[in-house]
């Protein structure tokens, strides 16, 4: 049996005397350390509870203070009902009228998105060979560069093999993003009165994303977790989120666990390299920010080198924890993705101890989902008409456990970053004009920022949501 010493000829252990052998547990257990809501409990090694639907509340019954206390601090998912897509965009961002027409149902909304300024923006589109494949799990090198307008036409014509998801953002030399959203999302939110919804005003936005595809029978995202708190608004189609608590980390075994890197923070955040706070801020960056604010010098060269070495070792070296013959091989999936699925026609089925125990959040048009950081979720998307399925989401830095709405983080790092990027967003000219693909760069992926030699490597956790890039892979250009 794996993890135990083999019996000798006389039934005795073949391990050398005095050498302790670590025994692997028969079954993975719920991991401790997380202090938030979990529908599952464990008694004498047996899982109890789970299953059922996520709570639903009307938007008008919520205020920022009660929402923060009852759901954000408790790390409890919530479905929030509004009066439809226009009402949802107006409630969150003050986006209304002609500025929100791109979210209209059917061909009307797709045409507005295609013909508007956002339609000229360059996007990277993920493609699959057949409808039974999952999205979000192919190598990013297989993505194609096109324009949002051309992609809209594909959706309008019934293409179910393509999906628009998260986009790589420009970064500075430290790995920090230089924008809150890709150009097409900035363009679609151009008429917004606010980019920081009042309901979640205590949390700092990190990234805005658009999710757009088409599927009659339902397409799966694959089972994974994100690294930020999430407000997800469904604008077209229908979606089903199948959820597991972060405590299921060792049972679901995402790729990062197999590599021996996972840490579960009290607020539920799961990280895979050292030097990251529970709010997701890299310690080295937060320390440098604090020093700049106080007028003090940054960390010493020795501290910088030590942090650099820790992060380099964790990010560049594969760690084998001895579980399974194939898990020592590098997986093509990112750390946050699982090899198991809740879908019948998926990867390997989830462990029997968790079958039927996921929470379900059923979203229809106009519904919002609040999902705390690192809750595992598999999203099944439905939308077979001309409008497909369309959603907009906002990732936010997760708060510390026991914090307040006025001070959710231990310092002003996240607020400072958001404010600087929000000002840059408001100042810049129309994003579409800057981002239309040119003939000379049509076949090249935008280069990612590489850290200069001697700079500390930092973790920017939202990047891990995208599949890893293969150095030899190219992004293909599909011309309109």
From TrEMBL:
State the source organism's domain of life: Eukaryota
Name all JmjC domain ranges.
185-413
Q: Which Pfam families match?
A: Cupin_8
Q: Which region ranges are annotated with the description Disordered?
A: 1-32, 428-480
What PROSITE patterns does the entry give? JMJC (PS51184)
Q: Which InterPro entries match?
A: Cupin_8, JmjC_dom
Task: Please list the residue ranges that the record marks as compositionally biased, kind Basic residues.
Answer: 445-480
Please name the PANTHER family in this protein's record: HYPOXIA-INDUCIBLE FACTOR 1 ALPHA INHIBITOR-RELATED, JMJC DOMAIN-CONTAINING PROTEIN 4
| Annotated protein name in UniProt | Jmj4 protein
Taxonomy-wise, where does this protein's organism fall, top ranks first? Answer: Eukaryota, Sar, Alveolata, Dinophyceae, Suessiales
């Amino acid at each position: 049996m794996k993890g135990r010493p083999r019996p000798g000829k006389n039934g005795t252990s073949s391990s050398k005397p005095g050498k302790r052998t670590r025994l692997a547990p028969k079954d993975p257990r719920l991991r401790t350390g997380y202090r938030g809501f979990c529908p599952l409990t464990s008694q004498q090694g047996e899982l109890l509870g789970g299953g059922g639907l996520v709570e639903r509340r009307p938007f008008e019954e919520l205020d920022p203070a009660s929402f923060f206390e009852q759901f954000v601090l408790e790390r409890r998912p919530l479905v929030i009902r509004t009066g439809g897509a226009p009402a949802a965009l107006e409630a969150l961002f003050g986006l209304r009228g002609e500025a929100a027409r791109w979210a209209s149902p059917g061909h009307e909304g797709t045409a507005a998105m295609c013909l508007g300024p956002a339609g000229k923006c360059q996007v990277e589109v993920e493609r699959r060979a057949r409808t039974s494949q999952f999205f979000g799990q192919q190598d990013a090198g297989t993505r194609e560069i096109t324009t949002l307008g051309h992609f809209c036409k594909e959706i309008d014509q019934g293409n179910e093999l393509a999906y628009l998801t998260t986009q790589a953002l420009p970064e500075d030399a430290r790995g920090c993003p230089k924008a809150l959203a890709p150009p097409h999302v900035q363009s679609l939110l151009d008429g917004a009165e606010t980019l920081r919804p009042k309901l979640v005003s205590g949390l700092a936005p990190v990234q805005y994303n658009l999710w757009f595809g088409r599927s009659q029978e339902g397409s799966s995202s694959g089972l994974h977790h994100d690294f930020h708190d999430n407000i997800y608004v469904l604008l077209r189609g229908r979606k089903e989120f199948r959820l597991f608590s972060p405590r299921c980390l060792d049972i679901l075994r995402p790729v990062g666990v197999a590599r021996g890197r996972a840490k579960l923070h009290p607020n539920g955040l799961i990280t895979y390299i050292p030097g990251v706070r529970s709010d997701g801020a890299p310690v080295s960056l937060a320390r440098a920010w604090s020093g700049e604010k106080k007028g003090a010098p940054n960390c010493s060269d020795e501290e910088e080198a030590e942090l650099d070495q820790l992060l380099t070792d964790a990010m560049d070296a594969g760690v084998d924890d001895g579980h399974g013959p194939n898990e020592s091989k590098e997986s093509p999936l990112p750390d946050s993705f699982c090899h198991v699925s809740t879908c019948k026609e998926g990867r390997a089925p989830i462990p029997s101890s968790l079958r039927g125990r996921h929470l379900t959040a059923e979203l229809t048009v106009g519904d919002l989902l609040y999902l705390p950081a690192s809750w595992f979720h598999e999203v099944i998307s439905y939308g077979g008409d001309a409008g497909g399925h369309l959603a907009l989401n906002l990732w936010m830095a997760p708060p510390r456990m026991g914090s307040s709405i006025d001070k959710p983080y231990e310092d002003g790092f996240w607020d400072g970053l958001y404010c600087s990027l929000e000002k840059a967003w408001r100042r810049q000219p129309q994003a579409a004009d800057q981002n239309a693909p040119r003939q000379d760069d049509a076949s090249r992926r935008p280069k990612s920022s590489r850290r200069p030699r001697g700079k500390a490597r930092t973790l920017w956790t939202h990047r891990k949501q995208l599949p890893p890039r293969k150095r030899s892979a190219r992004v293909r250009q599909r011309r309109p």
